[in-house]
Amino acid sequence: MTIIHPNFGTMDASRVIIFDTTLRDGEQSPGFSMNLDEKLRMAETLAELGVDVLEAGFPVASPGDFEAVNRIAQSIKGPVICGLARSGVADITRAGEAIRPAERKRIHTFISTSPLHMKYKLRMEPDAVLEAVIASVTLARNFTDDVEWSAEDGTRTDMEFLLRCVEAAIKAGATTINIPDTVGYAVPEDMTRIFTTVREKVPGADQIILSSHCHNDLGLAVANTLAGVRAGARQIECTINGIGERAGNASLEEVVMAIRTRPDANPYHHNIETTRILRTSKLLATITGFDVQPNKAIVGRNAFAHESGIHQDGMLKNAATYEIMTPESVGWQKTSLVMGKHSGRAAFRDKLSLLGYGDIGDNALNDAFRRFKDLADRKKIVYDEDIVALVDDEVTRG
Ligand code: KIV
Ligand code: ZN
């Protein structure tokens, strides 16, 4: 059955919607809150990146959050603008008011469905939760035809109850159903089983978009997200740099590039302009004051840097030997061959030519290379200036 979505129209079966929640789930991580101007700048950059849905905040949370969602709804064109709401009337009404100015808008409403959350957090019986699902989705539909419903702690929810909630949400008018791995507990096989079962057992599940929202407590958020997509999810919820509660959310840049780089394993397409990934990541780091770790996939400073002699030699012969995507494809200017104690003669010679040295002769090259290695044993990174000083000295002495 073809899906006809209120904001995306007729969905191509291999199209994956990228739902960015940097400004909502991402902002919920300690120390990552952003002010209005910062949120507006991020929202503009996310729109240029090509995200399909921009979850701009949780309007009932504070007047500032309401204003941010409302201003983004007024000024950002392109993505569907989404506001989060729990299942109560106040939350949904506030979210509806905040997103009102947007050309294309969505309310994302959620309630916990796992035994643990229902008993200790909500203190509600399952039947009352089921009623809240129906009431919340029905109310949200008064503000927009695009309503997403999430089963918080969905991956730890009893399957039979999850199926009843999903069916009720679809009947009440939800057009996207999200089954989050709220606490990052799932393994990819769980995601496969859950999404496959929902698709097989829930009437109407083939007419709505299923969504995968994974947290990274076990470092499995991206793998779990993609497992969900392989089992039929067609929306990915993610954040720039993987920021989010605790260990974070699935990282946008990683899921997007996993799809782009491995179409054999992930035969889907998305609208992300991947060459804008790095600048978006850097803007977020500047705004929040949190740099990504050097070895972070795609956007870390070492993601396209090579120090070992063997790797540098391979890279100089053919970049595909040690790079599975080009740095330019995600916004880096080029690969960097970092000069350190593991670097070999081939990279040293290449560096000299990049620094403008012609042929300095074999003897000078050998001596300079030996002195470079001595220096590299003492310094973690040898900078271009160090090499220039060393070679100039060698050439003058020689
Ligand atoms: O992780 C989660 O369950 C959430 C919901 C609000 C969707 O962020
Ligand atoms: Zn979350």
Question: Could you give a short description of this structure?
Answer:
The chain is of the alpha/beta class and 398 residues long. It has helices at 22-26, 36-49, 63-75, 89-99, 115-122, 126-140, 159-172, 188-201, 221-230, 252-261, 277-288, 309-317, 345-354, 362-378, 384-397; strands at residues 4-5, 9-10, 17-20, 53-57, 80-85, 105-112, 147-152, 176-181, 209-214, 235-238, 305-306, 336-337. Strand 11 (305-306), helix 12 (309-317) and strand 12 (336-337) form a beta-alpha-beta unit.
Descriptive report:
It is a single chain. Helices cover 44% and strands 13% of the residues. The protein is of the alpha/beta class and 398 residues long. An 8-stranded parallel β-barrel has the order 3-4-5-6-7-8-9-10, surrounded by 7 helices. It has a two-stranded antiparallel ribbon with strand order 1-2. Strand 7 (147-152), helix 7 (159-172) and strand 8 (176-181) form a beta-alpha-beta unit. Helix 2 runs antiparallel to helix 11 (277-288) and helix 8 runs parallel beside helix 9. The chain starts with a strand and ends with a helix. The mean pLDDT is 96. The structure holds 3-methyl-2-oxobutanoic acid and zinc ion.
Secondary structure elements and pairings:
Blueprint: E1 4-5, E2 9-10, E3 17-20, H1 22-26, H2 36-49, E4 53-57, H3 63-75, E5 80-85, H4 89-99, E6 105-112, H5 115-122, H6 126-140, E7 147-152, H7 159-172, E8 176-181, H8 188-201, E9 209-214, H9 221-230, E10 235-238, H10 252-261, H11 277-288, E11 305-306, H12 309-317, E12 336-337, H13 345-354, H14 362-378, H15 384-397
Parallel strand pairs: 3-4, 3-10, 4-5, 5-6, 6-7, 7-8, 8-9, 9-10, 11-12
Antiparallel strand pairs: 1-2
Helix pairs in contact: 2-3, 2-11, 3-4, 6-7, 7-8, 8-9, 12-13, 14-15
The structure holds 3-methyl-2-oxobutanoic acid and zinc ion.
